[in-house]
Amino acid sequence: MQTQQPPQTHSVWSGFHKKALKERQTQLRLAFPSLFGPQPSVSASAASSSASSSSSAAAACTADSHDATAPQAHADPFPLAPIHNDVADNMIENCVGTLGVPIGLALNFVVDGDPLVVPMVIEEPSVVAAVSGAAKTLCSASVSGLGFHSHTSDRNVIYAQVQMLDIPDASIDRAIDAVRAESDTILRIANEFCASMQKRGGGAIAVSVRKIRRSRPVLVAASARSAAAPEAQRAVGDPDPSLASYWLVVHVHIDVCDAMGANCASTVAEGVAPYLARITGGRIGFRIVSNLATERIATGRFRVPTSRLAYKGVPGDQVAERIVEAYEWACDDPYRAITNNKGIMNGIDAVAVATGQDWRAIEASAHAWAALGSRLDAATSSTANAARDQPSSAYRPLARYWIEAPSPESTPKPSDIREPMLCGELSLPICVGTSGGVLKTNPVYQYTLGMMGHPSSKRLAAILACVGLAQNFAALRALSTEGIQRGHMSLHARNIAIASGAPAHAIQECVAYMVERGRITTLAAQEYLAAHRLQTQISMLGLPGSRDSASARRMSVPLSMFFFEETPLQLPSTSSHASNGQPVASDRVTLNIAFASYSSQPVHIELTSSSLLVSRDPLVESLFGTKNFGWINAVPGLLDRVQLQSMTGGSRRSNKMLSKKLKLLSVLLNILTRRLLALHPEETDEFIESILAVEDSSRNAGGGTSSADSASSSHFARLDASGTSGIGSAVDETRTRHLSDSGLFRVDAYKAIDKIRARSGPNAETLLVGIPLFLALWQVFQYRVSQWVGDASLAQDLLDEQRHVIETLVAVLPVPANSGIPTVSLSGAGAAVSVGVADKALALQHVCSVLDMHAARFQSTLFLLCDAISMDAPAAASDTGGASAFAADGGTRLWTQQLRVVGKRLGREQAVAHDLAADRLRRDLELVRSPGGGVSHSGDLRGPGVRVVNAFLSWLVVVRGWTLEQVLLTDMRRDAGGVSGGVRDAMTDFVRDVSHGDAEDDDGLDWTSAMGDDAKRVVRLYRKYYDVLDLFE
């Protein structure tokens, strides 16, 4: 594990495509707080108020209603959303609505050394993924380390064109001389029509004139020749002798600063036209902007070693050679060149649309440049006519590629290249603007441009060129290796799944089903949906929140990042491995969590196999204790081993990875909560209490739990007798409403710890990093459950159970008054004093209650509910319930009730086995012996000092009457003799004492019949894993 930086293996944007939509939006709020504002939040006082009336709710939708103290039932939507109909109606004529198109983020771009996030608006699959992958390759392999290099023209010059007609051939040269002679006057008049542009440092700067040979169009169609007068009957294509031989076109060159400039140019053209007519003697023709701005060229370049270009099993030098070969073909074949350039424009147009540019003008200019390019002569028409004469070779690819050979070894220099380099370059005219025009009409553009740092128009043009080059490289690389269809069709399968009616939470698993079978068809998608009855499930849940403008805070440091990547401990038994024998990356659990820490510098925590090779980091050890990468990496495999294979419902689905990630998120939350409670008990308890209060208030506003629950000051008081969270114990229709309006979604990562960050003391950095990371992990858990778990009842059970686990971690079990039971037995002075508990039955009852709390912290119920995600709910009644119990929601309610029963018992069995394991006992005793250490008899994990919760140790002290000193001096090996008849006898008595209940749960459901022998198999695995089988047999 490491937090060192640089170098940094993974960025905060890696894995972005695997995150839930709401999770991505939250990351944008954290990465650009001054742009998007803070994470939507609800203040505790506002949240505890009653829900707003309909009138106030309507007022909350207005632009000025973001009062931090006003209770709001729903949040403002994320600002990257379609414009309001009223705005749209004033933008165009005959408006009837708006059309939504996805906004994606192209990642991994570095341009001239500056990392960039580039927004793209496009409906075509694979474009955003392809350009992001290409940028990652090219920027990470850049020889200079600066990524793409860019260059733009010195000034943003656009042309105002004025066409002068009816000038005889004999007079045209005189007209040209007159224009040139009067250029100063023409410029003065032009600047009168763009005075504001001139004040900003731009304006009309030059005048040029073009004499263009006039082609001879067909004036009389063949079908009309018989009806025409004899004198008008000319052969098709004959010149009209009455026409002049040339067009005379005057260009006024205008520096439009950061504007696109089309309106300005057209205004200038109309303004100078009368004076041009007077000095040339011609008739005024068209006065309009030209979208071919040949003095507004943007260029993007890259230069990377060919050895870094290996892709899909093809060596890098071959990839480079094939890309150059593809370029050369496009140079000779316009049929290929047009498709090549279309791919370039996929990227350029998508960014142009996202940033409010005239993408049609950019597209037209690009294709004109491809047809004429450097052959364009602004003064004459000869090259244009020549290009027209050879259409088969005129249209060229916009980007070019070449390979630089290594420098001769005989004369090495520091600047020499030591290996072949693939070089790519894209140059084209790009007219864009970052001020004026439609940019102020649509508020979305302030966000899309803001994500790029509000670039100047020249900088934006350079970014467009680099995106176009990366897009082209991605396409050529794919075509040169595996072909473009494999990756494209995987993404195209999403559209098929959507068109087939797949709900949002099931789209990815439906895609996996089609890809695995090689059938990307509507029929295949419908087969999958019908097999799992997903067509009746809910669609993607909306995730509203609220906005509190008073909580805005500007980030002073970049985002911190937590990254985990599973390293398989052994090869899988299935065929899910690559040709080299290694497990494929898609089978590995990876987590990339961006969060906003309050540490002085951004923290990058990486839990990977390579992290074991670096020196230990004190901060990481404080956050995770002894749970290093090796321990955490083993968790997914261990959980797979104890997964119930016979869960009612039978058929499995293709979303097991979601289940594994949710389990790992919960485990990380568990570890982090324990560590924070041990190091910063007061601050952590206060923070979690505030988070739970926000959750409660959100539910109460929606008609959920009573205010008495949220008003309770004791965490454990919120746990009912069955160990189930009181909030989640009743399964009813209100859950769907609660699910989409979870209070945790509204917690502002900055505001929530304002009080915490003011604290100082030992290990302050652990608090300032740990609390934001804790919040981020919990939010990510909720985001993914809410978006990708389709059954609302199961999703709510998952959210409730995760909350229940957090509640039990911070819970403190009240000790019966006057019972003689201490809350904690401390080492040191007093350890030799025996606890005098007269009522042994009361003492045993208390130890069993500690055991129940301890068992809930093992998350067994949560893990079963996670497994249920990849299983179909039963379609009919089981032996444990009637058909009516399943009718309401396809059997999920009774099914999850069974899972809770089994999960509670499995957690208890695991806790007993865990607390009796010899290595765990020795570890716990070492912790008790540490300064301030002790055995907690109330389940309290808080410091100061280490508080060990071990039901067996508590039983020895409270029920058996051993002194803590006796416990500490005892060798916990079961074959050892010792105090009170030996450890083995004590353990056997403990197992008998705590197995006080029968096989039925408090809800009257038999846990063994619910899952049968399968549950017993898992219990046996627990006991075998902890090496305590002999105590139960």
Please write out the topology.
Elements: H1 21-31, H2 33-36, H3 44-48, H4 54-59, H5 85-89, E1 103-111, E2 114-121, H6 127-140, E3 149-152, E4 157-165, H7 172-181, H8 183-192, H9 195-199, E5 203-213, E6 246-255, H10 262-280, E7 283-290, E8 297-305, H11 316-332, H12 334-354, H13 359-372, H14 382-389, H15 391-394, E9 399-404, E10 421-429, H16 444-451, H17 457-480, H18 484-499, H19 507-517, H20 522-531, E11 560-565, E12 590-595, E13 604-607, H21 618-624, H22 629-641, H23 656-679, H24 681-701, H25 707-711, H26 734-739, H27 754-757, H28 764-788, H29 792-810, E14 824-826, H30 840-856, H31 860-869, H32 883-887, H33 892-916, H34 918-929, E15 934-936, E16 947-948, H35 951-958, H36 964-969, H37 983-994, H38 1007-1011, H39 1013-1025
Helix pairs in contact: 6-17, 8-10, 11-12, 11-17, 12-13, 12-17, 18-19, 19-20, 22-23, 23-24, 23-28, 23-29, 23-31, 28-29, 29-31, 30-33, 30-35, 31-33, 33-39
